[in-house]
Design a protein that fits this description.
Elements (H helix, E strand, L loop, with lengths): L1 H29 L7 H18 L2 E6 L7 E4 L5 H9 L2 E6 L8 H7 L3 E3 L5 H15 L3 E4 L20 H6 L2 E10 L6 H4 L8 H10 L3 E7 L3 E2 L5 H15 L9 E2 L3
Parallel strand pairs: 1-7, 2-5, 2-6, 3-4, 3-5
Antiparallel strand pairs: 1-9, 6-7, 6-8
Helix pairs in contact: 1-2, 1-8, 2-3
Length: about 260
């Protein structure tokens, strides 16, 4: 019976999620206002992500406040992180170029103004950094997952410092952010919410839809002025800050996000 109900729940959510994807995609194509500039694209993505999280029964709880016009350095637990961060505040993401080829997700990422980077080409860091400066100047958050991959949440991998070079040179503010997830007893956030290793995307997404509810916790740290650091020291400091922020804190320390 539990398996049957899980399948029914998953089917209902899949239908609703496809409706959100279709509506949001059509709105982007039809309404020129969504394509006007980076801020408009970020707001379009924010609304789409809020609707998707509601469908997936993901409630976002935030401790502290995101800082506009800053680079956001967060730990990375999977694709759900993108929806969560985008729902909280208008942001632009820096992502590996392979994401552009993903079905549906790649289209949304590109239309939302994601800066794609080829990690095999050193010059790409400078290229992306030059374009990202305008994002920060517009007062948007620029999200970079400095671990370079996603994990199951049991650790925060060393941060790659090369992507911090534009922030150091530009004197941007950098805000550490720690994410973790809670699920009902008997379910596993590490296996059913976090997407990492050799997990296959579509089966994982289907299973996520069967989880009764998910609590996404985001803890924001104190902004750091990047120009006061070398990029390697800044990467180490940010990792330590994120490690501290990902320690599970009493539920009451977080304020529920509501649309």
């Amino acid at each position: 019976m539990a398996t049957l109900w899980n399948n029914v729940r998953g089917a209902r959510r899949l239908t609703a999620l496809l409706a959100v994807i279709g509506w949001s995609g059509a709105a982007y194509v039809v309404q020129a206002a969504h394509r006007r500039d980076a801020a408009a694209k970020a707001r379009w993505l924010q609304q789409a992500c809020r609707r998707a999280l509601r469908v997936l029964a993901v409630k976002v709880e935030s401790r502290g406040e995101p800082v506009p016009g800053a680079l956001i350095a967060a730990n990375h637990l999977g694709y759900l992180d993108i929806l969560v961060l985008a729902a909280l505040t208008p942001v632009v993401f820096v992502s590996k170029k392979e994401v552009r080829a993903w079905p549906v997700f790649g289209w949304f990422a590109e239309k939302a103004g994601t800066r794609f980077i080829d990690r095999t080409r050193r010059g790409d860091v400078s290229h992306v950094g030059a374009g990202a400066g305008s994002v920060v100047a517009e007062g948007l958050g620029l999200v970079i997952f400095l671990e370079g991959t996603s994990t199951d949440g049991r650790e925060v991998l060393p941060f790659k410092s090369s992507l911090l070079e534009p922030a150091v040179l530009g004197g941007w503010r950098v805000v550490p952010a720690g994410l973790f997830y809670d699920v009902p007893p008997g379910r596993s956030a590490a296996r059913e919410v976090c997407w990492w290793g050799d997990m296959t995307l579509l089966p994982h997404l289907w299973n996520l839809m069967t989880v009764p509810w998910v609590r996404a916790h985001v803890a924001w740290g104190t902004p750091i002025r990047a120009g006061d650091w070398s990029r390697k020291l800044l990467a180490r400091e940010l990792r330590q800050e994120v490690l501290a922020l990902t320690i599970k804190t009493p539920h009451t320390d977080f304020n529920k996000w509501r649309e």
